[in-house]
Each structure stands twice: as structure tokens, then as C-alpha cells.
Specification:
With 284 residues, this protein is of the alpha+beta class. It folds into two domains: 2-97, Tumour Suppressor Smad4, CATH 2.60.200; 129-284, no CATH class. It is built from six helices and 13 strands. A six-stranded antiparallel sheet has the order 2-1-11-10-7-8, with no helix packed on it. Strands 4-3-5-6-9 form a five-stranded mixed sheet, with no helix packed on it. Strand 12 (102-103) and strand 13 form a beta hairpin.
């Protein structure tokens, strides 16, 4: 098994590591991207990294420039590691093998964390731990529905007015999508705005624009659902290993995505947030 490791240095000096066990990784500013950068640093989809038997291929899919080890590229092959620059963001990429120990068909303790990532990719459900000492209990099994089914109708009846509203709403949706990597709740707002724009394009007699806008909505919806599930699994894992700093980050994103929702999971998240806040205050 192999993985791709991304060591990211943002403008201003902040650094972050992202590890992805997938044969194809997208770097860009879109909410669906595996490695997400700021919109002023990367295009919606900027570079695609693919692990192939013959090597690691990098493909620039945006018109904006990207460089590998100081050389601009459209398609190139990465060595064992290399440094990609997008805007003022530096991303060091390394392809590395993951040691897997097996005994009686079970994963060894040394690869437990990697197993969690693999389970996420396979859609498995991780049986999670709780924080018994904080008394928050085990996380409820069911998540609230981010995008409940509902009929979307355009607020205009005149085709010309519908076309104008579609254009305006489409622009609002694009803006929300671009902000979503940094304001997760914006992804939910963007999907709703895209759906409204599609309905208005249909009324305005522009089926091609309606279909394209609806496709964008479904792609963003799928990516946002994936983000919710991945954050949920990682939060539960971080609570299990008592990595409360990363747990705090995931709680912030999950609560933002589920803003305005109700139910057992939302209530549990609120309890976790309070416990983590108390724990941090206790350290201070």
C-alpha cells in the first residue's frame, strides 16, 4: 500500500501536513479537492496527482501556472518527492509506502490510524470511542440530512426576469463555493443557490445552463457529504486517541456544516464542544 504526503507551507509561514491514501488526488480551492488551498492561491481544480505503476504523474488542469522544483509544467513525472508551487503556496509532495502488519487477518496496532483512513475510503463505518471521563457518551449513529429533498421553484414567472435572477443567483453560488473551504457552511448555501439558479434557467428557457448548474450543485453536494462523513470519522478517532487539538478543529467544521440542524448528533456535538472548551480552560 502507498500514500501521498503533502507538506504545505502557506503564505505567512503556517505549515500543515495532509496524508491521502488514494491513487488520484486533486489540489485546488474547490470544496471537493483532496488538498484545498485558498482561492487566491489555486484554481478551483489546479493540479491532479496520480499514483501510477510507472511513477507519479502531475497534471496541471488549470490555465494558471504551476511549477515543480522550479520548472513550470503541464504534465510531468514526480520523483520520490518534489516541491510544487502554486501562487505563494509551497507544497512538498512525497510518495511513500505504508507498512501493513497482519496477524490472523487483523490489522496490527502499528497501522491502526492508517486503517481508519482506509475505512473512510471504503465507506466503512468506524465503531467509535467516546470520552467517558468527560461524560459526553458515544456519538449517535445517524447524521442529520444536509440536503433534504425539496422542490425548488423560481421566484419569477417572466422568462426575462427569471434569466436575470438565475444569473445573479449563480454568481452568489459561485462566491459561496469559493469561500466554502474556509467557511464550511457556505458549501450548503452554495448548493441551494445553484439549485435555485437551475430552476430559474429552466423557466427562462435555457436548458443547457440549467443542466450545467444542476451538475455543479450535485458535485458540490457529494463533496460536502463526503466532508461531513470524513470529519465525523476523524473526530471520533481523535477523541479515541485523545488528540483534542485536532478534535476541536473537526468540531468547528461539523457544527458549521450542521448549523441550524437539530437532533441527537447535533446535541452530542455541542456537548463535545463544551467538554473540549473546558479541557482547554483547565490547561490554561
Amino acid at each position: 500500500m502507498e500514500e501521498l504526503r503533502f507538506d504545505i507551507q502557506y503564505p505567512g509561514g503556517r505549515t500543515e501536513r495532509s496524508v491521502v491514501q488514494s491513487a488520484r488526488v486533486v489540489i485546488g480551492s474547490g470544496a471537493h479537492c483532496d488538498v484545498r488551498l485558498a482561492p487566491d492561491q489555486a484554481a478551483f481544480e489546479h493540479v491532479v496527482v496520480e499514483m501510477l505503476p510507472e511513477g507519479t504523474r502531475l497534471t496541471r488542469v488549470a490555465k494558471e501556472m504551476a511549477s515543480l522544483d522550479g520548472n513550470a509544467f503541464s504534465i510531468t513525472t514526480l520523483g520520490p518527492c518534489g516541491t510544487v508551487v502554486l501562487g505563494q503556496t509551497v507544497v512538498r509532495i512525497e510518495r511513500a509506502a505504508v507498512a501493513v502488519a497482519a496477524a490472523n487477518g487483523k490489522l496490527g496496532a502499528g497501522v491502526l490510524l492508517k486503517g481508519v483512513v482506509l475505512a473512510m475510503l471504503l465507506g466503512a463505518v468506524l465503531v467509535i470511542s467516546n470520552m467517558p471521563e468527560e461524560g459526553v457518551g458515544r456519538a449517535p449513529a445517524d447524521l442529520p440530512e444536509l440536503f433534504p429533498a425539496q422542490e425548488i421553484t423560481c421566484a419569477r414567472t417572466d422568462p426575462a426576469e427569471a434569466a436575470a435572477l438565475a444569473s445573479d443567483t449563480h454568481a452568489i453560488a459561485d462566491g459561496a463555493r469559493e469561500r466554502s473551504p474556509f467557511e464550511p457552511r457556505e458549501a450548503v448555501a452554495a448548493v441551494k443557490a445553484y439549485d435555485l439558479a437551475a430552476a430559474c434557467y429552466t423557466l427562462a428557457g435555457d436548458p443547457e445552463a440549467a443542466a450545467e448548474t444542476s451538475r455543479t450543485a450535485r458535485e458540490l453536494e457529494a463533496a460536502t457529504r463526503g466532508e461531513l462523513r470524513a470529519r465525523r470519522v476523524r473526530l471520533e478517532r481523535m477523541l479515541a486517541v485523545k488528540d483534542y487539538e485536532i478534535a476541536r478543529q473537526d468540531v468547528v467544521v461539523l457544527r458549521a456544516l450542521l448549523e441550524g440542524q437539530r437532533g441527537p448528533y447535533v446535541s452530542w456535538l455541542a456537548k463535545v464542544a463544551q467538554e473540549l472548551k473546558s479541557r482547554r480552560a483547565g490547561k490554561g
